[in-house]
Specification:
The protein is an alpha/beta fold and about 300 residues long. It has 2 domains: about 15-135 and about 290-300, Aspartate/ornithine carbamoyltransferase (Rossmann fold), CATH 3.40.50; about 135-285, Aspartate/ornithine carbamoyltransferase (Rossmann fold, 3-Layer(aba) Sandwich), CATH 3.40.50. It is about 35% helix and about 15% strand. It contains 11 helices and 9 strands. It has helices at about 15-30, 60-70, 90-100, 115-120, 135-150, 170-180, 210-215, 235-245, 250-255, 275, 285-300; strands at about 45-50, 75-80, 105-110, 125-130, 160, 185-190, 205, 220, 260. The strands form 2 sheets. The chain has a 5-stranded parallel β-sheet with strand order 7-6-5-8-9, sandwiched between helices. Strands 2-1-3-4 form a 4-stranded parallel β-sheet. Bound molecules: phosphoric acid mono(formamide)ester. Phosphoric acid mono(formamide)ester (CP) binds near residues 56, 58, 263, 264 and 265.
């Protein structure tokens, strides 16, 4: 069955069948990545542009690696070395890039809605690599892939998302994806960092991190996004850590093993203590490894290529 969409703009409205197809396809690519030569000719002849208007380490490098592992041709765009600095608009930029004959665009932008806008400017398939506070679908897919790998299921799994929910595109995509796949979701953080209309998601909400830890199988811990928020949403970083920081002592009080996730980058000692981030019950680096396989799957399924995976 092909994917029921031309673009990946977010997980809102994406069916369980499509999410399952992306995760199953990623399983095949995850095996390919363990081979001595982790490369297949599947997307030979396709050209992908990585259009990054915001900084990124994990997403940009894993998309680049995914494209190379699939034998696609890829080009990287960064604003600092582009004619955006001379005032060129986003529409002109993408239309000029498409005139050079490209097939797919991976886009990260500080403004929500940019991936959708690009679908109206060009014919290429668009993949959202994070748009403002809106969605980061491939992050949620790699998170779900990592959970499925660890627990063998998503259905009924209890995932607590802790921290700066209102500014987080990772939270947005995770809530949508996890709920579609039958997981239970709890949001935990200061009231000032909770979306005003949080009830619409149909999730549980708490401001007590001990409650969230007692309830959850998994904590997905988020970074405080200082670059996206106005001042005064919580008193100090020290106070945030005291109220919401994930520490070994807090986890030990729960008397059960809890899996720790974080999309990165981590602010060690603020939302997550260093010894927890590096503990054997943390899957943070597994998330990063799985990100390459998941992005290979998305590129493959949207690339419209008839060749078999291997
Ligand atoms: N998780 C994530 O999006 O990290 P980067 O900003 O480094 O891509």
């Amino acid at each position: 069955m092909p994917l029921q969409q031309k673009h990946l703009l977010g997980l809102e409205g994406v069916s369980a069948a499509d999410i399952g197809l992306m995760l199953d396809t990623a399983t095949t690519f995850r095996e390919i990545l363990e081979r001595p030569i982790p490369k297949v000719p599947t997307l030979r002849g396709l050209t992908v542009v990585n259009l990054f208007y915001e900084p990124s380490t994990r997403t940009r490098i894993s998309f680049e690696l995914a494209e190379k592992r699939l034998s696609a041709d890829s080009v990287n765009f960064t604003t600092s070395a582009s004619s955006v600095k001379k005032g060129e608009t986003l529409k002109d930029t993408i239309r000029n890039i498409e005139a050079m004959k490209i097939d797919m665009v991976v886009v990260r932008h500080q403004a929500a809605g940019v991936p959708h806008f690009l679908t109206q400017c060009v014919q290429a398939a668009i993949i959202n690599a994070g748009d403002g506070m809106h969605e980061h679908p491939t992050q949620a897919l790699l998170d779900m892939f990592t959970l499925r790998e660890r627990f063998g299921r998503l259905d009924g799994l209890r995932v607590a998302i802790i921290g700066d929910i209102s500014h987080s595109r990772v939270a947005g995509s995770n809530i949508r994806g996890l709920m579609t796949m039958g997981a239970e979701v709890m949001l935990c953080g200061p009231k000032t960092l909770m979306p005003r209309d949080v009830e619409k998601f149909g999730v549980q909400v708490t401001c007590d991190v001990e409650d969230a830890i007692a309830w959850a199988d998994v904590l997905n811990v988020l970074r405080i996004q200082l670059e996206r928020q106005e001042a005064g949403l919580f008193p100090t970083m020290r106070e945030y850590h005291a109220e919401f920081g994930i520490t070994r002592q807090r986890l030990e009080r729960a008397k059960k093993e809890i899996t720790i996730m974080h999309p990165g980058p981590i602010n060690r000692g603020i939302e997550l203590d260093a010894d927890v981030a590096d503990a054997d019950y943390s899957v943070i680096l597994d998330q990063v490894t799985n990100g390459v396989a998941v992005r290979m799957a998305v590129l493959y399924l949207l690339g419209g290529n008839e060749e078999s995976v291997s």
